[in-house]
Amino acid sequence: MKPVLLIAINFAREQRWPILTLLLWVLLLAFLGLVTDVHRQREDLLFVFKQDAVYVLAFSVFFGGSAIYNERRSRRILGVLSKAVGRQQYLSGLVMGVTIACAVYCFALGMTGSWTLGEAGFSIAHVWFLMVCLLAACALAGTVALMFSTFLNPFFAAGATAIVLGLPALAGQIVGPQWGYVIPVWELGATVVNSSFDSPGVGSWFPVALAAAETIVFWLLSARIFAYVDIAVAVE
Amino acid sequence: MRYALEFDNVTKEYRGFASKRRLRALDGFSLTVEAGEIFGFLGPNGAGKSTAIHLAMGFMRPTSGAGRMLGERFGHPGMRRRVGFLAESVALYHRRAERLVRFYGALNGMGGTHLENRAREVLEIVGLQDHANRNAGKFSRGMLQRVGLAQAMVNDPELLILDEPTSALDPLARVMVRELLLNARNAGKTIFLSSHLLSEVELICDRVAVLHRGRLARLGRTADLLQAGDQTEIVVRAIAANQFEGAVARDGVVSICVPSHSQRAALERIWSLGGEVVSVNPLRRSLEEIFLEVTADSQSSPVKGIQ
């Protein structure tokens, strides 16, 4: 467990600049909360809050899809995998790292959202429920992207991830709503995007639990694929 | 355990994602490295040296064949706890040198004050004790290579696998690394050294292998390889070069190469001609000569690709 944690923290640390850049958007929400009349501008605040939430979902795909590629290109992967670290542990570290990076953002957004939206009459319990939904969606999207990145370059990995996450959503629209839960990233995202001041305190935990279970499945699948991948890196 | 590293008929082919063309980097490669020796692994660029090392470390899988390192199959994570590895063109995270070494030590299951002390110790061994709190991202290539060596040694490994460990180092640092490797060998460690610096390999390696086009082209004890057959070089003064067939005059002395069995007769003839013998030594070749001989055809034809 120790190597997994070390790799995860190291990954989150290496992503500090993208995370800090993302946090600027949360800062914008906080700034709006300070300078505007939160009661009169509450719909605008909620819009910024939802916008910030969608950004982290996109970034989770970016984090997951580029993690292995960046490590291989920089050759740092050799230093880590030359130690007593198994491929599965390495992958687990990256999954955990992506989740930590997104969790930092979700926590900051949750804190700011509780303060700004809470003051405008939004249920604080619902803000944190939405953050849990968002984190579950990020973990799943990041893990799917990570799985594709074990054998595709980041560009194709992002495309393949978009297809895998988008198809159930499309089927949910055309065939029936239950199809949206096959890979519930879209459903969880929709829970955040469709939230309003009339939303109840806490919604259904089913998609969250499903996303957590699917994250484990995709993580195991990634580890299985990664065990057979050559970490061949050219010397520049 | 007699062998620290064993390659048993290992073949590795690289294949493109969509292409049928395959490149054979290693071709039926077999080699054993004995425990407690410094083993020099030589070969021109593209010979398959890094591929062999990456296979041993478990970074890739052989197409056929197998191998063992410290008694375990290649790529066994637990076995890597007993191995130190320095990659060619070392790449490290940008953080303080001491923290970096501790990070790699912790990945090997080390911790607590033992790891802290060991990190300081290895940084001192590589001469970076004054830079322990500096960010490795701001280090020169030579300093990075020294941190790389420190991280490879932090777990006090039984086997050190070093891919070009001195390529970016200045002469003083090279001497330091040479002494470090000799000390490690004296402490019972095994060192597998891949290098293009033939003079260094010649100085410190017990055995040497030359890899060429994925195959083992030469293998033997360094001293035996450098022995140029049954020849003796006699250096004399005060005689003319034309009095001996094949003699070469330079810097006021004459160098004569004779078969060892006729050494006595040659010396008697030199004395009878009034010559003064300066030295008599078995003729030695340099590793560079052997390397060039083995790889002589590499300029004319590229690395073999198979369909």
Report on this model:
The complex is a heterodimer of chains A (236) and B (307). Chain A has 236 residues and is mainly alpha-helical. Chain A has one domain. Chain A is 77% helix and 0% strand. Chain A has helices at residues 2-14, 16-35, 42-73, 76-81, 87-119, 124-149, 154-174, 185-193, 206-226. Chain A is globular. Chain B has 307 residues and is an alpha/beta fold. Chain B folds into 2 domains: 3-224, P-loop containing nucleotide triphosphate hydrolases (Rossmann fold); 229-284, Dna Ligase, domain 1 (2-Layer Sandwich). The radius of gyration of chain B is 24 Å and the shape is globular. The model of chain B is unreliable at 299-307 (pLDDT under 50). Chain A binds chain B through residues 2-3, 6-7, 10, 14, 74-76, 78-86, 89, 228, 230-232, 235-236, and chain B through 14, 50, 54, 57-61, 77-78, 80-81, 83, 85, 87-93, 103-104, 106-109, 111, 148, 151, 155.
Named at the architecture level, the CATH assignment of the largest domain in chain B is 3-Layer(aba) Sandwich
Helical stretch count of chain B?
9
Tell me the strand percentage band of chain B.
25-35%
- Give helix % range of chain A: over 70%
- Please indicate the count of domains of chain B: 2
Q: Count the strands of chain A?
A: 0
For the report, how would you describe the main beta sheet of chain A? Answer: none
N-to-C CA distance of chain A: 34 Å
* Shape label of chain A: globular
According to CATH, what is the class of the largest domain in chain B? Alpha Beta
Written as H for each helix and E for each strand, in order along the chain, the element string of chain A is: HHHHHHHHH
CATH superfamily of the largest domain in chain B: P-loop containing nucleotide triphosphate hydrolases
| Assembly category | heterodimer
Which key terms come to mind for this protein?
heterodimer; A: 236 residues; mainly alpha; globular; B: 307 residues; alpha/beta; Rossmann fold; Dna Ligase, domain 1; 2 domains; six-stranded mixed β-sheet; five-stranded antiparallel β-sheet; 32% strand; disordered C terminus
